[in-house]
Design a protein that fits this description.
- It is a single chain.
- This protein is mainly alpha-helical.
- It is 74% helix and 0% strand.
- It is built from ten helices and no strands.
- The radius of gyration is 20 Å and the shape is elongated.
């Protein structure tokens, strides 16, 4: 009979979280109308990225298409582009879209979709982990940490498992949140 930890880990398995969210976002990207391959007008660029984010969220998360949330979507796009291309990320992305280099408009849309995928999957995993951890008593938490170390300790950095594995005990929720990515990497080694 599976333990509570086994049930949690099964529910956050990469195939059920990372891969499922990725497939859903991919479907949304493919359903988005690519009206053109390049854009050379700043306002049109902004509107297009906002429409894209709104579409991804609507298709993937089933959120209503709210037109008044333009600033929220533009901020999300700006943050993603700045993370990728530096402090002038939005301007750099506009240049990429304008000149068609580095994948052009499609490359920028794929980057935004990829980052939205990561955020959605991370949020889903975090919610499940926090619900699990917050419902454990102290003794149950100690037992869950011991069970996790017995089953998956060999996948963790040695400095985390040394001694009494106090780092794991302190940061157990974070370790569990990283578990799907660890499993995904492990599965991809043989490919």
């Amino acid at each position: 009979m599976p333990s509570k930890l086994d049930l949690l880990l099964e529910s956050i398995d990469p195939a059920r979280t990372l891969d499922r969210v990725s497939a859903s976002v991919d479907r949304a990207v493919n359903a988005f109308s690519m009206r053109r391959g390049a854009i050379d007008n700043w306002d049109e660029f902004e509107r297009y990225l906002v429409d894209f984010c709104r579409h991804i969220e609507h298709v993937t998360l089933k959120f209503p298409k709210k037109t008044e949330e333009t600033k929220v979507y533009w901020t999300r796009c700006s943050n993603i582009l700045s993370d990728r291309y530096g402090p002038n990320g939005v301007k750099n992305a506009f240049d990429i879209v304008r000149n068609g280099k580095e994948g052009g408009l499609y490359g920028i849309l794929k980057l935004i979709a990829e980052k939205m995928t990561e955020q959605y999957a991370r949020n889903e995993i975090s919610a499940r982990v926090n619900q699990y951890v917050n419902n454990l008593s102290f003794d149950e938490l100690e037992a869950a940490v011991a069970e996790y170390l017995k089953k998956y300790g060999h996948l963790l950095p040695r400095e985390w498992t040394e001694g009494s594995a106090v780092r794991i005990k302190i940061h157990f929720a974070r370790v569990l949140e990283k578990h799907p990515e660890i499993i995904r990497q492990m599965r991809s080694v043989g490919r």
